[in-house]
Design brief:
Number of helices: 1
Oligomer: single chain
Order of helices and strands: EEHEEEEEEEE
Length: 203
């Protein structure tokens, strides 16, 4: 309020209002906490390129993976299916074709190094099945004779992977990943390296 007093000129008295200042740091902490808290079920799909390089057998193929699981904050469990089809190569008269698929069971982890960016890792058991065949062809005179040799085997090895990605919101993320799948059998060895794009939905 403004008042006048005799002999003293103008004087000011009363109170002044202060504006409300939002707590920006608290809001940032909340966003960061939400980005890190991913407790709950999730499903994930991966698609990319798989490569095999074993002795004289060297090829790439399309890779697909489907995973699901439950995560307690940063650590979770997962199970899934992976398929890498139609590896093909030719060497010394051999036309080789191989297919690999299997089921996975393991643990995974996620760490948000920024409010919406994350690093991920996983490791577990790979229960695989491989089918390989080779057409052995020889030339006898003017004729070419081919014999088909087939090998079908399975086993249990390990898989492991790392990745980086972005949380678009609390329920959806996309990223890029590298995975290694061991498949070392008596008749067939198809250790596979995979680079893929990932998409995860949480609920």
């Amino acid at each position: 309020t403004v008042s006048t007093a005799a002999g003293s000129g103008w004087s000011l008295s009363g109170t002044s209002d202060k504006g409300v200042v939002p707590d920006v740091s608290a809001a940032g902490d909340t966003l960061s906490a939400e980005s890190r808290d991913r407790t709950g079920f999730f499903i994930e799909a991966r698609g990319g390129s798989a490569s095999v390089s074993e002795d004289e057998f060297d090829d790439t193929a399309t890779a697909f993976q489907f995973n699901g699981g439950y995560r307690w904050g940063a650590i979770g469990i997962e199970g899934g299916y992976a398929t890498f089809n139609d590896f093909e190569d030719s060497d010394s008269g051999l036309d080789i074709n191989a297919e690999l698929d299997g089921y996975t069971l393991g643990i995974n982890g996620r760490y948000n190094f920024a409010p919406q960016w994350y690093l991920a890792g996983r490791v577990g058991a790979f229960f695989w099945d491989a089918d390989a065949n080779a057409a052995v062809c020889v030339v006898a005179g003017t004729n070419q004779v081919c014999n088909l040799v087939d090998a079908d085997t399975d086993g249990t090895d390990f898989y492991a992977g790392v990745g980086v990605g972005y949380d678009f919101n609390e329920m959806f993320s996309m990223g890029a990943a590298y995975d290694y799948f061991g498949a070392d059998g008596d008749d067939v060895t198809l250790d596979t390296n995979v680079f893929s794009v990932t998409a995860e939905v949480r609920f």
